[in-house]
């Protein structure tokens, strides 16, 4: 249960909200002004019988006066405050910070989940729990919500924006969002809840987390030393994802403010400049209770809402655990249109409207969380998970998609195995069996700050390498992360020889490499400064140049070189000249070679097989990797790879492919190779179907041919 505010400060605020003085309250109670003053200055508290009279004077119930966990409903009502237009005539066409990100739920997931990680309460050792709720409203449910957000007050402002929409990008988005709500009769809410987080603490106006998120732009006040954010831009994704520019907030605080922690509510609206009834408005607006201490009591502040209010605003939280709920009103996902697909079994006519398809939004949120935050959800040994995430989807309170908890071992099995092995101390020096995880230390030489030449020290990052599984996505990649364990950088290791077993690698730097890693804190700070607002790579940034030097990013390039070299050393099996196994396999593989022939003056030039590598798999299949040299011609023909048994006499039996995949410079469609125009070489891999082998695999020799067209 929430502890109530002290009586004196609570009573003082209620009098201001009700527009009453201490003397007027004293007169109503039949007491002296000195008695009321003593309560407000906390020198005394009223008797129980006087509490009843105070409740009557404030127009509230006795329970509210006793518990003091919410404001009375007397006095100034909840309303929208719109910032007046600038006196110098300046105009803003919208919040520029929102243009830093696309209206994409996957971008939203990355930024909001990162913010929640940064605000995790670490003392209890528990992960921060982040849940995304998609809720589509129609009919009476939509009408009730519009009433709760005081739509009638807002409609003139939206109409004004629509009238000038053709001149403003933000205006066009908002106009489309309003028309979508009324013409299609539905509205999508997307709520982001976090638990075991700090909440929006601090005063409404002074420095603090609340003001940084709700009142200010480009201000970042993160709690953790491993914070992912540093620009103060991430919160803009909330408003960028709203077609109406509206976000409502309900925060449970980890540190009491005004003696309370629960149901601190406010709303913020981001619109472009507009004129309503001849009065200009600058852009943003806030939903709250008018602050009697501001000029004309027009500016609104957050208020302590009751349970009924947060229910009507779709902001009710599960429990009193600290954290914040952000409700994006009119959520849209422009990027989902690029996928070009919707769920055919969607109901109530929502399929085919990809921008509002709640099922597509659900799926894309799950994909993004599993891709970007898998490492934060892994624990093992002394390494505890930092994060738990889930997604659920409703329509008018009815379940459309059940709550889906993101499981990193399902979305990223190989990388999850690698990280858990590191935490549990089960890594090996070199991979000799399936399922093993190899570890190498890689150096990051940190520069001196302030443009000075030299090295501060060498931080030892941790490189983990393991065999890839199909669910991991693109093979032969390195995922790099630091203290908050969000994937920052994804890079492919190039220049690998043919026949290398596909792998996945994880690079841990900063505090992710372990508390005992030398210069972990300095590496954390350096790499954080090397990240752009998207936090999706390390490289040259203005902050890196200002704090270190214009060449400081070269230290990161050297780290990448060290990582790639270590990966190759781990996954490339050393060649053993004269190896009996290698000799046998080379004898069993043949490639048709060009024979001496009369030169033709002209003719088509076709791709040519130039190198093969193969091994016999566990199921006795041939696993083949082939490189094709591509000629410089205007149009490359399609070719079909055909694998044959090389026999001494008679026709050569043709084997079936069980698998045929493109690796580089080509694509495979229906067993046919399509080559990329301008590429100089192509690489593909294949595995034969053992059931098509007429004799034991070990007793066969193979010939691989490229045939023009379908190869029939």
| Separation of the first and last Cα atoms | 76 Å
The strand count comes to: 26
Main pleated-sheet profile: 12 strands, mixed
Strand content: 25-35%
Shape: elongated
Helices, by number, come to: 19
Return the structural class: alpha+beta
Low-pLDDT runs of 5+ residues are: 223-232, 340-355, 577-582, 594-604
What level of helicity do the residues show? Answer: 25-40%
Please state the average pLDDT score.
83
| Rg on CA atoms, Å | 32 Å
Question: What do you see in this structure?
Answer:
It is a single chain. With 712 residues, this protein is α+β, with helices and mostly antiparallel strands. The protein is 27% helix and 26% strand. The protein has 19 helices and 26 strands. The strands form five sheets. Strands 1, 2, 3, 4, 5, 6, 7, 8, 9, 10, 11 and 12 form a twelve-stranded mixed beta sheet that branches. A five-stranded mixed beta sheet has the order 13-14-17-15-16. Helix 6 packs across helix 13. The protein is elongated and about 120 Å long. 40% of the residues are buried. Mean pLDDT is 83; it is low at 223-232, 340-355, 577-582 and 594-604.
